[in-house]
UniProtKB/TrEMBL annotation:
Name used for this protein in its record: Deoxyribodipyrimidine photolyase-related protein
Stretches the record annotates as Disordered: 159-180
Gene3D superfamilies documented for this protein: 1.25.40.80, Deoxyribodipyrimidine photolyase-related, DNA Cyclobutane Dipyrimidine Photolyase, subunit A, domain 3, HUPs
Biased composition (Basic and acidic residues): 159-177
Pfam family of the protein (one): DPRP
One annotated GO molecular function: lyase activity
Signal sequence region: none
Keyword Lyase part of the UniProt annotation: yes
Keywords, sorted A to Z: Lyase
Length: 493
């Protein structure tokens, strides 16, 4: 059926590799209900609609583009057999399953990942939930795909260059590299902006600011962004991968996570491009390995765990964290906190729908975990607020990696840290009203307070984790814990 079927593409299946031949007919659906159900970031809504409409324009008469309330309404207008590549969320998969019972739809395996679900299953089965370590998966994927390998061994004798990739930011306050590649908006973007304005006038709510589109919305743009990154920024990427600077939210990051997750780039081709830069001597192994680890290691690991761990994984809440997200946070209001690092991170999300992985993990996620914010609410917030956020991305990243709600499947210990880490890896603390070293008093750093408060509140639960032994012993030795708890009763167990 595949050759003659019309390919139903979701909005994150936009690259050529989601089609089987150059003549295949396509249907793309803009469902308005998606925006009515959830308050997405305005720039995320813009990017997705722009990318879908750019794809439709590329396909021309081969594409039937429908704007309806629901997918079902749209597909009723399409005659003949359909085929669909496995969508990227459980909810979309259930929709497809329901429709399969009503009409002829061929379901095809997922595309857009280096390691498919079958290969992942072969690697994971029999290991047990707590032994699905990213590092082991990554090495297996490198070997299978012969990436940065010399025979059976990793090039330069090491699998992992993380230790070289943790430098604090330069004291100059800036990286000496060219700006990222930026897209130029066109008439499609203008039409998207007008439609989003009309939706807002019609009562659909968004969060965040509107602004120029900053992420690639077509395969050609995505390739330009990738080529520019590899040529100008990749050599610096590894070194400052974890650093944060007030004056440079982009640092040396690639900004290709959004087009990758829209299906506009083939991840293995992305990896090969970076590998070629290493082979040609244009980028050091620490930078290239760090980048490859993100694309075919972490990204594929997350994708596969989303499916492998099952649909109920999203509801896990091992630390019984039930505090609702504060309103200022859900409104992306940076004035809701005096903590400079958190305010800055929230501003970045508000202004561009993006912040790199350290503000996500060590500022926003860290703060939320310390205060016991509800991990499901937080997952939804990340999904809606980030241009590259999708269910499959955010469920394992937030429930597992960031919030430890899975009790140690993705991370062997909670990702919590005090102000000292943020002070070392950023230039935020100098101008902050708080002091990163202080845990009591008016200028006590909320991250330092939160770190000890989190350990105190979860002491019993974490006592069985051998990686937490030392920090819990440090907690026992803390002389001012009573004062800290008196000043911050929310951390009382
Ligand atoms: Fe953040 Fe604390 Fe540093 Fe202020 S002092 S910027 S709250 S880590």
């Amino acid at each position: 059926m595949t050759e003659s079927s019309t390919r139903w593409l979701f909005g994150d299946q936009l690259g050529d590799y989601f089609l089987d031949d150059d003549d295949q007919q396509v249907v793309l659906v803009e469902s308005r209900r998606v925006f009515r159900r959830r308050r997405f970031h305005r720039q995320k809504a813009h990017l997705v609609l722009s990318a879908m409409r750019h794809r439709a324009a590329e396909l021309g008469e081969r594409c039937t583009y429908l704007v309806t309330e629901t997918y079902r309404e749209a597909l009723e207008q399409v005659e003949g057999p359909l085929s669909v590549v496995q969508p990227t969320t459980w909810a979309a998969l259930h929709l497809v399953d329901t429709l399969v019972g009503e009409r002829e739809i061929e379901r095809l395996p997922a595309r857009g990942y280096v390691t498919g679900r079958g290969e992942f299953g072969r690697w994971a089965d029999g290991r047990g939930r707590r032994r699905l370590l990213m590092e082991n998966f990554y090495r297996d994927a490198r070997t299978r795909n012969d990436v940065l390998m010399k025979g059976a061994e990793p090039v330069e004798g090491r699998w992992n260059f993380d230790a070289d990739n943790r430098e604090p930011p330069p004291r100059s306050g800036r990286l000496d590299i060219p700006e990222p590649w930026w897209p130029e908006e066109d008439e499609i973007d203008a039409a998207v902006r007008a439609d989003l304005d009309a939706m807002e006038a019609d009562g659909i709510e968004f969060v965040g600011e509107d602004g120029p589109r900053r992420f690639a919305a077509s395969s050609a743009e995505a390739q330009a962004a990738l080529d520019h990154f590899v040529e100008h920024r990749l050599p610096t990427f590894g070194r400052y991968e974890d650093a944060m600077l007030t004056g440079d939210r982009w640092m040396a990051h690639s900004l290709i996570s959004a087009p990758l997750n829209l299906g506009l780039l083939d991840p293995l081709a992305v990896v090969r491009t970076a590998e070629e830069a290493y082979v040609a001597g244009e980028a050091p192994i620490s930078a290239v390995e760090g980048f490859v680890r993100q694309v075919m290691g972490w990204r594929d690991y997350i994708w596969n765990l989303y499916w492998y761990l099952g649909e109920d994984y999203r509801n896990e809440n091992a630390l019984k964290a039930t505090t609702p997200l504060p309103e200022w946070f859900t409104r992306l209001d940076p004035t809701g906190t005096d903590a400079r690092c958190l305010s800055w991170s929230l501003s970045s999300v508000r202004e561009v729908g993006w912040a790199h992985h350290i503000p996500r993990l060590m500022v926003i996620g860290n703060y939320a975990q310390q205060r016991g914010w509800d991990p499901q609410e937080l997952t939804d917030w990340f999904h809606r607020s980030f241009v590259d956020g999708y269910g499959w991305v955010m469920v394992p990243n937030v429930v597992g990696m960031s919030q430890y709600a899975d009790d140690g499947v993705l991370g062997t210990k909670p990702y919590v840290g005090g102000g000292a880490y943020i002070n070392r890896m950023s230039d935020f603390c100098g101008d902050c009203v708080y002091d990163p070293k202080k845990r009591t008093g008016e200028d006590a750093c909320p991250f330092t307070v939160g770190y000890w408060g989190f350990l105190h509140r979860n002491r019993e639960h974490l006592s069985g984790n051998f990686r937490m032994g030392q920090v819990l012993r440090n907690l026992d030795r803390l002389k001012d814990l009573d004062q800290l708890l008196e000043e911050n009763p929310e951390f009382c167990a």
